[in-house]
Structure formats: structure tokens, C-alpha cells
Design goal:
It contains nine helices and eleven strands. The protein is α+β, with helices and mostly antiparallel strands.
């Protein structure tokens, strides 16, 4: 879920970069701080366990997803992709929760890791061959979530700063993932689905398509029945954030019964992301 970016993603927007935030340390790809908050990549098994615990609390306890028996027993959200992905996490060093200071996360999957895993997670829902064929490095975003107490705080901004730093470091040219609309009735989601199809459909050369057996037509309404401004305003904030970065959607939606969502595949060329972060980083270097 871009993200992002697969399973249900929280309603977070892509806000402006934070001024006055420390840049990377030399030994980490991502290490950005703002007050007691820090964003970096997971480095230990304990980090990943904390990420999985946060995802479980958000997806299953808050959003009503249906856990598999082992997930319920362990109270963790996990799958076969976790050990081969990079996990971006936000930690609150000042909240007193020393056992689990992780308050936000994104899962990041690049091309080489996807090859080891036999493909990208999104391929379970979409034919992403046009994305895989794209020249340059690509990045799948997913499993995005932020603790409820931090969704209007710098934790969200730090996640986006972290993604930008990661994209810049790995020279990623395209990122994608499955973003979610709440509920599994496409007719109840007729306005957002139709709006996305008519106004933000990806160019054919880059357009993923929902797998035939899972394909749900997004054209629930005629284009004349849609008020574009109102439809855009009603989208989940995360999807709006991707669109503001010039993002597109693939063809067709997919129902995810386990997570009680309707998914759309979102893709974003990273030009705007890296340009904004580069300008911010250059300003920081000049002022240090």
C-alpha cells in the first residue's frame, strides 16, 4: 500500500518536508530526527517484531482486518515478504514506551529482493509487468501505518522524508503499491473509483491491470456524473498525497476480503520526490 503503499493504508498525506531536521548520519541510509522522533530503517529482528506488532494493532485491532490463526496467536501482522524487505520506521524516543517505541512504518521492496522472493507483493492483485519492465530501479511501498496518536504530528512527515532519502540513495525512478479504500462494496465506492479511472489512469505503457480473476471495473458512474473537485476531496488522504506527487492508478480495482478493503494500484514517478528532498538536503548542508 503506497504508500503505500498493499493492505489497508492509514489516511496520511504527503506533507512538506520538515525544516530543521537533521540529515543522515554517515553510516545509515536513512537517519532523520525531529525532537524525540527518529526515522530510520529496521536494523534488528527486534525492530521488525515491533513493526509487526504496530501493524497488528492498526490493521486488525483498529481497522477490523481478519487475522490468520498464527497472527492472532502471536498478535503480529507478518508474511513471507517481511524478512527480505527494508522496513522504514519512526521511533519516539521520548514517549516512555521503551519496549516498543515504533509509532510508524512503511515496508519497502526493491527489484533484487523481489527476485529472491519470486515477485512483488502487488502481483497477487495486479499484472505489474509494465512496472517491472520499467528501466531503472523500482520500489514497492506497502504496509503503511501510523499510531493513532501520531497521525497529525511530525511522524507522518518523517516517514515521507525517509522515503525520499531512500529513493534518492537507491536512485529509484518509480514507486508503486496498492492503496486501499475502506469497504468491499464497489458500488458504495462508485464516486472515488470512477473519478480515479477517468482522471488519473496511468499511461498505457506503465499501466498495471487487476488480474482477470480479481478484476472489478472502476467505471461505476459516467464521467458526467462526477464532480471532480468533490471526488478528489473525498479520497483517502494517502491517495490524495500520491496524486499530488503526480501519481496515477492502474486499471481495475481488487476486493480484499481479509482486510475489508477495495484496493487500487498506485504508481508515482519519483522526480518530484527526489527534487524536493534534494533541495531540502542542500539547504541543510549549506546551513551546517
Amino acid at each position: 500500500m503506497i504508500t503505500g503503499v498493499e493492505q489497508p493504508v492509514l489516511p496520511i498525506e504527503a506533507p512538506p518536508l520538515i525544516e530543521g531536521v537533521a540529515a543522515h548520519t554517515r553510516d545509515r541510509i536513512v537517519d532523520i530526527r525531529s525532537g524525540p522522533l527518529q526515522v530510520r530503517l529496521a536494523e534488528t529482528a527486534a525492530d521488525i517484531d515491533a513493526v509487526q506488532a504496530l501493524r497488528y494493532r492498526i490493521f486488525y485491532e483498529s481497522l477490523g482486518a481478519r487475522p490468520l490463526p498464527e497472527m492472532l496467536r502471536r498478535r503480529r501482522d507478518f508474511d513471507r515478504f517481511d524478512n527480505d524487505c527494508d522496513h522504514l520506521l519512526v521511533l519516539d524516543r521520548g514517549n516512555g514506551r521503551n519496549n516498543n517505541p515504533v509509532v510508524g512504518t512503511y515496508r519497502l521492496l526493491r527489484r533484487d529482493a523481489a527476485r529472491r522472493l519470486g515477485g512483488f507483493y502487488s502481483a497477487d492483485e495486479y499484472d505489474i509487468a509494465p512496472l517491472v519492465a520499467h528501466k531503472g530501479e523500482i520500489l514497492e511501498l506497502g504496509r503503511s501505518c501510523v499510531d493513532a496518536a501520531y497521525r497529525q504530528r511530525p511522524a507522518v512527515q518523517l516517514l515521507w522524508n525517509g522515503i525520499a532519502a531512500y529513493v534518492l540513495h537507491h536512485d529509484i525512478t518509480l514507486m508503486f503499491g496498492c492503496a486501499s479504500l475502506p469497504g468491499t462494496d464497489p458500488d458504495a465506492l462508485a464516486t472515488p473509483l470512477s473519478y480515479l479511472h477517468y482522471y488519473h489512469l496511468a499511461p498505457s505503457a506503465l499501466r498495471p491491470r487487476a488480474l482477470n480473476e480479481r478484476y472489478v471495473d472502476m467505471r461505476r458512474l459516467s464521467i458526467g456524473a462526477i464532480d471532480p473537485g468533490r471526488a478528489l476531496a473525498g479520497l483517502p488522504p494517502l491517495i490524495k498525497g500520491y496524486l499530488r506527487l503526480g501519481g496515477f492508478v492502474g486499471e481495475g480495482a481488487v476486493i480484499d476480503e481479509q482486510f475489508n478493503t477495495t484496493d487500487v494500484c498506485v504508481l508515482v514517478k519519483t522526480d518530484l520526490v527526489t527534487a524536493k528532498y534534494s533541495r531540502h538536503y542542500e539547504r541543510r548542508c549549506k546551513n551546517t
